[in-house]
Design brief:
By secondary structure, the protein is mainly alpha-helical. The chain has 19 helices and six strands. The chain folds into three domains: about 110 residues, Fumarase/aspartase (N-terminal domain) (Fumarase C, Chain B, domain 1, Orthogonal Bundle), CATH 1.10.275; about 250 residues, Up-down Bundle (Fumarase C, Chain A, domain 2); about 60 residues, Ribonucleotide Reductase Protein R1, domain 1 (Orthogonal Bundle), CATH 1.10.40.
Protein backbone atom coordinates (compact mmCIF):
# COMPACT_ATOMS: atom_id res chain seq x y z
CA UNK A 1 0.00 0.00 0.00
CA UNK A 2 1.43 3.35 -1.07
CA UNK A 3 1.63 6.39 1.16
CA UNK A 4 -0.17 9.56 0.17
CA UNK A 5 2.17 12.26 -1.28
CA UNK A 6 4.78 13.19 1.30
CA UNK A 7 7.41 15.95 1.53
CA UNK A 8 10.82 14.61 0.56
CA UNK A 9 12.76 17.19 2.53
CA UNK A 10 12.44 17.37 6.33
CA UNK A 11 12.41 21.15 5.91
CA UNK A 12 8.99 20.81 4.31
CA UNK A 13 7.87 18.15 6.76
CA UNK A 14 9.14 17.68 10.31
CA UNK A 15 10.84 21.08 10.54
CA UNK A 16 8.46 23.21 8.51
CA UNK A 17 7.31 25.47 11.40
CA UNK A 18 10.89 26.61 12.02
CA UNK A 19 11.64 27.54 8.40
CA UNK A 20 8.34 28.39 6.75
CA UNK A 21 9.16 32.11 6.68
CA UNK A 22 11.71 31.42 3.95
CA UNK A 23 9.03 29.87 1.75
CA UNK A 24 7.51 33.30 1.30
CA UNK A 25 10.53 34.19 -0.84
CA UNK A 26 12.75 31.19 -1.65
CA UNK A 27 10.06 28.87 -3.02
CA UNK A 28 8.92 28.37 -6.60
CA UNK A 29 5.84 30.45 -5.82
CA UNK A 30 7.97 33.19 -4.25
CA UNK A 31 10.21 33.22 -7.33
CA UNK A 32 7.22 33.41 -9.69
CA UNK A 33 5.70 36.28 -7.72
CA UNK A 34 9.02 38.14 -8.04
CA UNK A 35 9.07 37.43 -11.78
CA UNK A 36 5.60 38.89 -12.13
CA UNK A 37 6.76 41.90 -10.10
CA UNK A 38 9.70 42.52 -12.45
CA UNK A 39 7.51 42.12 -15.57
CA UNK A 40 4.90 44.51 -14.18
CA UNK A 41 7.44 47.16 -13.21
CA UNK A 42 9.07 46.90 -16.65
CA UNK A 43 5.69 47.48 -18.28
CA UNK A 44 5.11 50.55 -16.13
CA UNK A 45 8.62 51.87 -16.83
CA UNK A 46 8.15 51.50 -20.58
CA UNK A 47 4.84 53.34 -20.60
CA UNK A 48 6.35 56.10 -18.46
CA UNK A 49 9.02 56.46 -21.16
CA UNK A 50 6.35 56.37 -23.91
CA UNK A 51 8.00 53.51 -25.80
CA UNK A 52 6.37 52.93 -29.22
CA UNK A 53 4.05 55.84 -28.50
CA UNK A 54 2.44 54.17 -25.50
CA UNK A 55 0.65 56.56 -23.17
CA UNK A 56 1.76 56.54 -19.52
CA UNK A 57 -0.58 54.53 -17.31
CA UNK A 58 -2.76 56.44 -14.91
CA UNK A 59 -2.08 56.05 -11.20
CA UNK A 60 -5.24 53.99 -10.96
CA UNK A 61 -4.06 51.67 -13.73
CA UNK A 62 -0.62 51.32 -12.09
CA UNK A 63 -2.25 50.45 -8.78
CA UNK A 64 -4.45 47.84 -10.45
CA UNK A 65 -1.48 46.34 -12.29
CA UNK A 66 0.68 46.22 -9.15
CA UNK A 67 -2.17 44.49 -7.34
CA UNK A 68 -1.45 41.51 -9.61
CA UNK A 69 1.71 41.13 -7.50
CA UNK A 70 0.33 42.01 -4.08
CA UNK A 71 -2.70 39.74 -4.57
CA UNK A 72 -0.58 36.84 -5.86
CA UNK A 73 -1.94 33.69 -4.19
CA UNK A 74 -3.01 30.11 -4.75
CA UNK A 75 -5.09 30.90 -7.83
CA UNK A 76 -2.06 32.52 -9.46
CA UNK A 77 0.17 29.60 -8.44
CA UNK A 78 -2.26 27.13 -10.02
CA UNK A 79 -2.68 29.16 -13.21
CA UNK A 80 1.07 29.46 -13.68
CA UNK A 81 1.49 25.71 -13.15
CA UNK A 82 -1.10 25.09 -15.84
CA UNK A 83 0.58 27.51 -18.25
CA UNK A 84 4.02 25.99 -17.66
CA UNK A 85 2.65 22.51 -18.33
CA UNK A 86 2.01 23.75 -21.87
CA UNK A 87 4.94 26.13 -22.42
CA UNK A 88 7.51 23.90 -20.72
CA UNK A 89 9.21 27.21 -19.90
CA UNK A 90 8.75 28.91 -16.54
CA UNK A 91 9.45 32.51 -17.60
CA UNK A 92 7.31 32.20 -20.72
CA UNK A 93 4.49 31.02 -18.49
CA UNK A 94 4.93 34.19 -16.42
CA UNK A 95 4.78 36.31 -19.57
CA UNK A 96 1.51 34.69 -20.63
CA UNK A 97 0.14 35.12 -17.10
CA UNK A 98 0.91 38.86 -17.16
CA UNK A 99 -0.63 39.22 -20.64
CA UNK A 100 -3.82 37.58 -19.32
CA UNK A 101 -3.95 40.09 -16.47
CA UNK A 102 -3.54 42.94 -18.96
CA UNK A 103 -6.60 41.66 -20.81
CA UNK A 104 -8.51 41.48 -17.54
CA UNK A 105 -7.63 45.10 -16.82
CA UNK A 106 -8.42 46.37 -20.32
CA UNK A 107 -4.76 47.10 -21.02
CA UNK A 108 -4.44 45.04 -24.21
CA UNK A 109 -2.87 47.95 -26.15
CA UNK A 110 0.38 47.56 -24.19
CA UNK A 111 0.43 43.74 -24.26
CA UNK A 112 3.37 43.61 -26.70
CA UNK A 113 5.49 45.54 -24.22
CA UNK A 114 5.29 42.51 -21.90
CA UNK A 115 8.77 40.98 -21.67
CA UNK A 116 9.89 43.50 -24.33
CA UNK A 117 13.56 43.07 -25.38
CA UNK A 118 14.10 40.74 -22.42
CA UNK A 119 15.85 37.43 -22.22
CA UNK A 120 14.57 35.10 -19.52
CA UNK A 121 17.68 35.76 -17.47
CA UNK A 122 16.88 39.48 -17.35
CA UNK A 123 13.77 38.54 -15.39
CA UNK A 124 15.31 35.67 -13.45
CA UNK A 125 18.44 37.39 -12.17
CA UNK A 126 16.43 40.32 -10.85
CA UNK A 127 13.86 38.00 -9.30
CA UNK A 128 16.51 35.94 -7.52
CA UNK A 129 18.25 39.08 -6.27
CA UNK A 130 14.95 40.38 -4.90
CA UNK A 131 13.88 37.11 -3.26
CA UNK A 132 17.28 36.33 -1.74
CA UNK A 133 17.58 39.88 -0.44
CA UNK A 134 14.14 39.68 1.18
CA UNK A 135 14.77 36.21 2.63
CA UNK A 136 18.08 37.27 4.15
CA UNK A 137 17.00 40.66 5.50
CA UNK A 138 13.47 39.75 6.61
CA UNK A 139 13.86 36.14 7.80
CA UNK A 140 17.43 34.87 8.22
CA UNK A 141 19.16 37.97 9.62
CA UNK A 142 16.52 38.64 12.32
CA UNK A 143 16.99 35.07 13.61
CA UNK A 144 20.76 35.44 13.43
CA UNK A 145 20.49 38.75 15.32
CA UNK A 146 18.39 37.08 18.01
CA UNK A 147 21.06 34.42 18.56
CA UNK A 148 23.81 37.06 18.75
CA UNK A 149 21.71 38.97 21.29
CA UNK A 150 21.33 35.82 23.43
CA UNK A 151 25.10 35.32 23.50
CA UNK A 152 25.63 38.99 24.35
CA UNK A 153 23.08 38.77 27.17
CA UNK A 154 24.76 35.67 28.63
CA UNK A 155 28.13 37.41 28.31
CA UNK A 156 26.91 40.39 30.31
CA UNK A 157 25.14 38.27 32.92
CA UNK A 158 28.20 36.09 33.55
CA UNK A 159 30.97 38.59 32.85
CA UNK A 160 32.65 37.86 36.19
CA UNK A 161 31.83 34.15 36.60
CA UNK A 162 35.25 32.43 36.67
CA UNK A 163 35.83 29.30 34.62
CA UNK A 164 38.85 27.10 34.07
CA UNK A 165 40.08 27.26 30.48
CA UNK A 166 41.07 24.13 28.58
CA UNK A 167 43.63 24.84 25.87
CA UNK A 168 44.35 21.59 24.01
CA UNK A 169 41.82 20.02 26.36
CA UNK A 170 44.13 20.61 29.32
CA UNK A 171 43.62 22.83 32.35
CA UNK A 172 44.82 26.34 31.45
CA UNK A 173 44.73 29.97 32.56
CA UNK A 174 41.23 30.73 33.88
CA UNK A 175 38.78 32.93 32.02
CA UNK A 176 35.18 33.92 32.71
CA UNK A 177 32.01 32.51 31.24
CA UNK A 178 31.04 35.99 30.11
CA UNK A 179 34.26 36.59 28.21
CA UNK A 180 33.89 33.29 26.33
CA UNK A 181 30.29 34.09 25.36
CA UNK A 182 31.42 37.59 24.38
CA UNK A 183 33.92 36.00 21.99
CA UNK A 184 31.02 34.16 20.34
CA UNK A 185 28.92 37.30 20.06
CA UNK A 186 31.83 39.34 18.71
CA UNK A 187 32.72 36.79 16.03
CA UNK A 188 29.13 36.48 14.86
CA UNK A 189 28.57 40.23 14.96
CA UNK A 190 31.52 40.87 12.68
CA UNK A 191 30.27 38.35 10.11
CA UNK A 192 26.77 39.78 10.46
CA UNK A 193 28.04 43.20 9.38
CA UNK A 194 29.63 41.67 6.30
CA UNK A 195 26.42 39.89 5.35
CA UNK A 196 24.37 43.05 5.91
CA UNK A 197 26.68 44.92 3.52
CA UNK A 198 26.02 42.48 0.66
CA UNK A 199 25.47 44.10 -2.74
CA UNK A 200 22.55 42.50 -4.55
CA UNK A 201 23.40 42.99 -8.22
CA UNK A 202 21.12 42.91 -11.22
CA UNK A 203 21.51 43.08 -14.99
CA UNK A 204 18.94 44.07 -17.61
CA UNK A 205 20.71 44.12 -20.95
CA UNK A 206 19.35 41.40 -23.20
CA UNK A 207 20.45 38.10 -24.67
CA UNK A 208 24.22 38.62 -24.42
CA UNK A 209 24.46 41.77 -22.33
CA UNK A 210 24.80 44.05 -25.36
CA UNK A 211 21.35 45.73 -25.64
CA UNK A 212 21.36 44.57 -29.29
CA UNK A 213 17.61 44.05 -29.72
CA UNK A 214 16.91 47.20 -27.72
CA UNK A 215 19.02 49.38 -30.02
CA UNK A 216 17.48 47.93 -33.18
CA UNK A 217 13.97 48.64 -31.87
CA UNK A 218 14.69 52.12 -30.43
CA UNK A 219 18.08 53.43 -31.66
CA UNK A 220 17.80 56.80 -29.95
CA UNK A 221 17.20 55.53 -26.39
CA UNK A 222 20.03 55.68 -23.84
CA UNK A 223 19.62 52.03 -22.95
CA UNK A 224 22.31 51.74 -20.27
CA UNK A 225 20.66 54.65 -18.41
CA UNK A 226 17.21 53.07 -18.75
CA UNK A 227 18.59 49.73 -17.52
CA UNK A 228 20.38 51.30 -14.58
CA UNK A 229 17.35 53.31 -13.53
CA UNK A 230 15.13 50.24 -13.73
CA UNK A 231 17.45 47.95 -11.74
CA UNK A 232 18.13 50.56 -9.07
CA UNK A 233 14.41 51.32 -8.89
CA UNK A 234 13.93 47.73 -7.73
CA UNK A 235 16.35 48.36 -4.86
CA UNK A 236 19.26 46.51 -6.45
CA UNK A 237 22.77 47.45 -7.61
CA UNK A 238 23.16 47.74 -11.39
CA UNK A 239 25.75 45.51 -13.08
CA UNK A 240 26.75 47.14 -16.41
CA UNK A 241 29.02 44.39 -17.75
CA UNK A 242 27.61 40.89 -18.11
CA UNK A 243 26.99 38.07 -20.55
CA UNK A 244 23.44 36.77 -20.83
CA UNK A 245 23.53 36.17 -17.10
CA UNK A 246 24.39 38.36 -14.17
CA UNK A 247 27.68 36.82 -13.12
CA UNK A 248 26.46 35.72 -9.65
CA UNK A 249 29.58 36.96 -7.88
CA UNK A 250 27.43 38.69 -5.27
CA UNK A 251 25.71 35.39 -4.59
CA UNK A 252 29.02 33.59 -4.11
CA UNK A 253 30.13 36.31 -1.68
CA UNK A 254 26.89 36.10 0.29
CA UNK A 255 26.90 32.30 0.45
CA UNK A 256 30.56 32.18 1.50
CA UNK A 257 29.85 34.65 4.31
CA UNK A 258 26.77 32.75 5.42
CA UNK A 259 28.73 29.49 5.37
CA UNK A 260 31.38 31.24 7.51
CA UNK A 261 28.66 32.18 9.99
CA UNK A 262 27.49 28.55 9.95
CA UNK A 263 30.98 27.28 10.72
CA UNK A 264 31.42 29.66 13.64
CA UNK A 265 28.02 28.60 14.97
CA UNK A 266 29.10 24.96 14.56
CA UNK A 267 32.21 25.66 16.64
CA UNK A 268 30.04 27.32 19.30
CA UNK A 269 27.58 24.40 19.36
CA UNK A 270 30.38 21.88 19.90
CA UNK A 271 31.86 24.06 22.66
CA UNK A 272 28.54 24.28 24.50
CA UNK A 273 28.00 20.54 24.03
CA UNK A 274 31.40 19.99 25.66
CA UNK A 275 30.69 22.37 28.55
CA UNK A 276 27.45 20.45 29.13
CA UNK A 277 29.34 17.14 29.19
CA UNK A 278 31.79 18.63 31.73
CA UNK A 279 28.98 19.85 33.98
CA UNK A 280 29.90 23.52 33.51
CA UNK A 281 26.53 24.08 31.85
CA UNK A 282 23.42 22.22 32.95
CA UNK A 283 20.25 21.70 30.96
CA UNK A 284 16.92 22.72 32.40
CA UNK A 285 14.44 19.82 32.27
CA UNK A 286 11.45 20.43 30.00
CA UNK A 287 8.22 19.05 31.43
CA UNK A 288 7.12 15.91 29.59
CA UNK A 289 10.28 15.67 27.48
CA UNK A 290 12.23 12.41 27.15
CA UNK A 291 16.01 12.42 26.93
CA UNK A 292 16.58 8.73 26.29
CA UNK A 293 14.23 5.88 25.43
CA UNK A 294 15.95 3.63 28.01
CA UNK A 295 17.82 5.92 30.44
CA UNK A 296 15.30 8.17 32.18
CA UNK A 297 17.95 10.29 33.94
CA UNK A 298 19.33 11.73 30.71
CA UNK A 299 18.78 15.19 29.23
CA UNK A 300 20.52 14.98 25.89
CA UNK A 301 21.91 18.20 24.30
CA UNK A 302 19.80 17.59 21.20
CA UNK A 303 19.34 21.26 20.32
CA UNK A 304 23.06 21.72 19.80
CA UNK A 305 23.49 18.35 18.08
CA UNK A 306 20.63 19.12 15.70
CA UNK A 307 22.22 22.51 15.02
CA UNK A 308 25.56 20.88 14.19
CA UNK A 309 24.04 18.59 11.58
CA UNK A 310 21.99 21.31 9.93
CA UNK A 311 24.91 23.76 9.89
CA UNK A 312 27.02 21.13 8.13
CA UNK A 313 24.31 20.54 5.51
CA UNK A 314 23.78 24.26 4.98
CA UNK A 315 27.49 24.98 4.64
CA UNK A 316 27.94 22.15 2.13
CA UNK A 317 25.09 23.46 -0.02
CA UNK A 318 26.25 27.08 0.23
CA UNK A 319 29.79 26.09 -0.71
CA UNK A 320 28.48 24.17 -3.71
CA UNK A 321 26.34 27.13 -4.79
CA UNK A 322 29.25 29.57 -4.42
CA UNK A 323 31.47 27.31 -6.51
CA UNK A 324 28.90 26.48 -9.20
CA UNK A 325 27.33 29.88 -9.74
CA UNK A 326 30.51 31.80 -10.61
CA UNK A 327 31.11 29.60 -13.66
CA UNK A 328 29.10 29.77 -16.87
CA UNK A 329 30.22 28.41 -20.23
CA UNK A 330 30.80 31.22 -22.74
CA UNK A 331 27.81 33.56 -22.60
CA UNK A 332 25.34 31.14 -20.96
CA UNK A 333 24.63 27.66 -19.70
CA UNK A 334 21.86 26.41 -17.44
CA UNK A 335 23.79 24.91 -14.52
CA UNK A 336 22.85 27.95 -12.45
CA UNK A 337 19.14 27.38 -13.07
CA UNK A 338 19.07 24.06 -11.23
CA UNK A 339 21.56 25.16 -8.60
CA UNK A 340 19.66 28.29 -7.60
CA UNK A 341 16.53 26.32 -6.86
CA UNK A 342 18.38 25.01 -3.79
CA UNK A 343 19.10 28.42 -2.27
CA UNK A 344 16.08 28.05 -0.01
CA UNK A 345 17.22 24.61 1.14
CA UNK A 346 20.67 25.98 2.05
CA UNK A 347 19.24 28.86 4.06
CA UNK A 348 16.56 26.58 5.48
CA UNK A 349 19.08 24.29 7.17
CA UNK A 350 20.92 27.32 8.55
CA UNK A 351 17.68 28.87 9.83
CA UNK A 352 16.71 25.58 11.47
CA UNK A 353 20.10 25.48 13.22
CA UNK A 354 19.63 29.04 14.46
CA UNK A 355 16.22 28.08 15.82
CA UNK A 356 17.71 25.11 17.69
CA UNK A 357 20.59 27.16 19.11
CA UNK A 358 18.17 29.84 20.31
CA UNK A 359 15.99 27.21 21.95
CA UNK A 360 19.00 25.45 23.42
CA UNK A 361 20.32 28.67 24.97
CA UNK A 362 16.93 29.16 26.59
CA UNK A 363 17.14 25.72 28.22
CA UNK A 364 20.56 25.94 29.91
CA UNK A 365 21.93 27.21 33.21
CA UNK A 366 25.50 28.12 34.10
CA UNK A 367 26.80 25.92 36.95
CA UNK A 368 29.07 28.33 38.83
CA UNK A 369 29.53 25.78 41.64
CA UNK A 370 30.86 23.10 39.28
CA UNK A 371 33.25 25.60 37.74
CA UNK A 372 34.43 26.77 41.16
CA UNK A 373 35.13 23.18 42.21
CA UNK A 374 37.15 22.56 39.06
CA UNK A 375 39.13 25.75 39.62
CA UNK A 376 39.88 24.72 43.19
CA UNK A 377 41.19 21.40 41.94
CA UNK A 378 43.69 22.96 39.55
CA UNK A 379 45.93 25.32 41.49
CA UNK A 380 48.82 24.44 39.21
CA UNK A 381 47.40 26.86 36.60
CA UNK A 382 48.87 29.63 38.74
CA UNK A 383 52.33 28.47 37.62
CA UNK A 384 52.11 30.89 34.69
CA UNK A 385 51.36 33.80 37.03
CA UNK A 386 54.17 32.95 39.44
CA UNK A 387 56.90 32.57 36.82
CA UNK A 388 55.78 35.77 35.05
CA UNK A 389 55.96 37.74 38.31
CA UNK A 390 59.42 36.28 39.02
CA UNK A 391 60.61 37.47 35.59
CA UNK A 392 59.34 40.96 36.35
CA UNK A 393 61.11 40.90 39.71
CA UNK A 394 64.38 39.76 38.10
CA UNK A 395 64.18 42.59 35.58
CA UNK A 396 63.50 45.07 38.39
CA UNK A 397 66.56 43.82 40.32
CA UNK A 398 64.54 42.31 43.16
CA UNK A 399 65.35 38.65 42.45
CA UNK A 400 68.37 36.53 41.61
CA UNK A 401 66.44 33.45 40.39
CA UNK A 402 68.13 32.16 37.22
CA UNK A 403 65.37 30.26 35.31
CA UNK A 404 61.84 30.93 36.61
CA UNK A 405 60.15 28.90 33.86
CA UNK A 406 62.16 25.78 34.63
CA UNK A 407 61.57 26.28 38.32
CA UNK A 408 57.79 26.31 37.90
CA UNK A 409 57.88 23.55 35.30
CA UNK A 410 59.57 21.26 37.79
CA UNK A 411 56.97 22.12 40.44
CA UNK A 412 53.78 21.89 38.38
CA UNK A 413 54.16 19.94 35.13
CA UNK A 414 52.25 16.69 35.36
CA UNK A 415 51.56 17.23 39.06
CA UNK A 416 48.53 18.22 41.09
CA UNK A 417 49.58 21.11 43.31
CA UNK A 418 47.30 22.39 46.07
CA UNK A 419 46.94 25.82 47.63
CA UNK A 420 49.13 25.02 50.65
CA UNK A 421 52.00 23.81 48.46
CA UNK A 422 51.86 26.85 46.21
CA UNK A 423 51.68 29.28 49.13
CA UNK A 424 54.70 27.60 50.74
CA UNK A 425 56.54 27.70 47.43
CA UNK A 426 55.82 31.42 46.96
CA UNK A 427 56.80 32.22 50.54
CA UNK A 428 60.22 30.74 49.86
CA UNK A 429 60.84 32.67 46.64
CA UNK A 430 63.56 35.29 46.27
CA UNK A 431 61.18 38.13 45.22
CA UNK A 432 59.97 41.43 46.66
CA UNK A 433 57.45 41.50 49.53
CA UNK A 434 54.73 43.25 47.52
CA UNK A 435 54.94 40.74 44.67
CA UNK A 436 54.97 37.88 47.16
CA UNK A 437 51.83 39.18 48.87
CA UNK A 438 50.08 39.47 45.50
CA UNK A 439 50.87 35.87 44.61
CA UNK A 440 49.90 34.50 48.02
CA UNK A 441 46.50 36.19 47.70
CA UNK A 442 45.93 34.85 44.19
CA UNK A 443 43.54 31.93 43.55
CA UNK A 444 42.50 30.17 40.34
CA UNK A 445 39.10 31.88 40.67
CA UNK A 446 40.63 35.35 40.82
CA UNK A 447 43.28 34.72 38.16
CA UNK A 448 41.07 35.96 35.30
CA UNK A 449 42.88 39.14 34.34
CA UNK A 450 40.68 41.62 32.49
CA UNK A 451 38.19 38.99 31.36
CA UNK A 452 35.18 40.62 33.01
CA UNK A 453 35.91 44.10 31.66
CA UNK A 454 36.63 42.77 28.17
CA UNK A 455 32.96 41.86 27.88
CA UNK A 456 32.25 45.60 27.72
CA UNK A 457 34.04 45.65 24.35
CA UNK A 458 30.91 44.15 22.81
CA UNK A 459 29.31 47.58 22.99
CA UNK A 460 32.21 49.41 21.36
Amino acid sequence: MSLPPQPLSPLDGRYRPAVEGLGEFLSEAGLNRARVHVEVEWLIAQTDLRFAGAEPLTEQQKTALRAVVTDFGQAAIDELASLEATTRHDVKAVEYYVRARLRDLGLDPIAELTHFACTSEDINNLSYALTVKQAVTEVWLPKFDAVIALFASLATEHAATPMLSHTHGQAATPTTVGKEFAVYAYRLGRIRRQIAETEYLGKFSGATGTFSAHVVAFPDVDWPSVSRQFVEGLGLTWNPLTTQIESHDWQAELYDRTAHANRVLHNIATDIWTYISMGYITQIPVAGATGSSTMPHKINPIRFENAEANLELSSALLASLAETLVTSRMQRDLTDSSAQRNIGVAFGHSLLALDNIARGLGEISISADAMAADLDGNWEVLGEAIQTVIRAEITAGRSSISDPYALLKELTRGHRVGQAELVAFVEGLDIGAEAKARLVALTPGTYTGLAASLVERLGS
